[in-house]
Amino acid sequence: MQEAREMRILLVIGGGIAAYKASELVRLIRRDGGSVTCVLTEAGSRFVTPLTLAALSENQVHTTLWDLKNEVEMGHIRLSREADLVVVCPATADLMARMATGMANDLATTLLLATDKPVLAVPAMNVRMWLHPATQANLATLRSRGVTVMDPDEGAMACGEFGPGRLPEPEAILAQIRAMLAPIRPLSGRHVVITAGPTHEPIDPVRYIANRSSGQQGFALAAAAAAAGARVTLIAGPVHLPSPPGVERVDVETAVQMAAAVDAALPCDVAIMVAAVADWRVADAAGRKRKKDGTGQVAPLDLVENPDILAGLGHAAHKPQLLIGFAAETDDVIAHATAKLARKGADWIIANDVSGDVMGGTNNTVHIVSAVGVESLPRMAKTAVAEVLIAKVVDALA
Ligand code: C5P
Q: End-to-end distance of the chain based on CA atoms, in angstroms?
């Protein structure tokens, strides 16, 4: 099994002596293949320096709302949007009190108020501060709002007292982080190969055979699979689209190159062949530009069939666990897709009617054709189609 997309942790460090242990947590998350962005409260920066955290996380460290380069772009929202989980460690009595009352008087509390991501708070404080009814009430409030709060360890404390209030060991915090991320990363540990876009088949150095595929549906699927935790190899024909975050992209031009890139990306657990691969290529693409010869006669283009990448996988000895093809049709959509299911050896064919504005457009209407029948989805954005299909992939692999 290959490495999944890294987990992205936004780590808020409060001001307590246990802050030094947050550095160890950063190191463990990095060793586990995750990325960490640190946010230090004013008090936190008295215990651990931004430089230490920047070196350990290999990432920029944020300390105030006003150091985010572009607050017009809502930097505090971006920080949370780019994370899978927000971890508050150590969560001091003061920080938990501010979280519980909904204060937003620094970067840490502002992003904690604004985030829609799961939050893990790891308290550490003096035993009497921990047992104080005010802290316990704040704790209950946070838990009632869905914040996961780890129980502190019991033992000797930096202040010389004994009891509950010690920060749990960084290994235990990492285990909690992994457990919380498991449900939102259901494709973790899976490798998904996706082809997208058209192919260009050269006629000569300046001309080629192409089609109207924009690559949007394949790119949306790659983004959704990566967001679900998969390691994604996206093999893209010539398109003008940015790479989705966390996706390994291989750019190709022709069907033959696409087939070779798919081959090189194997093995995989799931293959989703979305590309509109040209059926034919020019047998003897000229090395020089073809010219009119003045006779009015046009030398015919000699075409040969391209390799069928999907069928190649469908009939391979090591077929992916789930093999999905697309069928762009202008008529008899379901009948053609059903015939392709068997012919190509695919598990599902996603049939779509491209007689309208689908190719190059942002919406799609698809029918999932499989051995168990046909499920038709309503017309929706290609990004929404991708979310639904990846959720079905998750179910199928479970
Ligand atoms: O036969 P047709 O081109 O309609 O089949 C469409 C499906 O087959 C798509 O999933 C497409 O990516 C795949 N395909 C392929 N290699 C080809 C032709 C189609 O992988 N040469």
A: 16
pLDDT at residue 8, rounded to an integer? 93
* 308 in contact with ligand 1, CB cutoff 6 A: yes
- Provide the pLDDT for residue 2: 36
What CATH number labels 191-397?
3.40.50.10300
Residues tagged active-site: 159
pLDDT score at 72: 56
- What pLDDT, on a 0 to 100 scale, did the predictor assign at position 241? 97
pLDDT tens sequence across 300-313:
899 999 999 999 99
How far apart CA 3 and CA 230 sit, in angstroms, is: 8
Residues 6+ apart with CB under 8 A from 13: 19, 22, 38, 39, 40, 41, 44, 48, 53, 89, 90
Whole-angstrom distance, CA of residue 214 vs CA of residue 237: 9
Please state the pTM of the whole predicted model.
Answer: 0.75
| Ligand 1 touching residue 326 (CB < 6 A) | yes
What string of DSSP letters covers 38-90? Answer: EEE-TTHHHHS-HHHHHHHHTS--B-SGGGSTTGGG-HHHHHHHT-SEEEEEE
Residue 68: per-residue pLDDT: 60
Return all residues near 100 (Cβ < 8 A) that are at least 6 apart. Answer: 137, 138, 141, 142
Whether the CA torsion 13, 14, 15, 20 is positive or negative: it is negative
Binding site membership of 255 for ligand 1 (Cβ less than 6 Å) = yes
260: left (phi over 0), alpha (psi -120 to 50) or beta: alpha
Rounded to the nearest angstrom, the distance between the alpha carbon of 5 and the centre of ligand 1 is: 28
Nearest residue to 303 (alpha-carbon basis) of 283, 326, 274, 276: 283
Q: Does 369 sit in the ligand 1 pocket, CB within 6 Å?
A: no
For ligand 1, mutation pick of 213, 254, 273 (most atoms within 8 Å of CB): 273
Pick the CATH number of 4-181 from 1.20.140.10, 3.40.50.1950, 3.20.20.70, 3.20.20.105: 3.40.50.1950
Q: Which atom of ligand 1 is nearest to the CA of 349?
A: 10
Low-confidence ranges of the chain (pLDDT < 50): 1-4
**What is the residue extent of each domain of the chain?**
4-181, 191-397
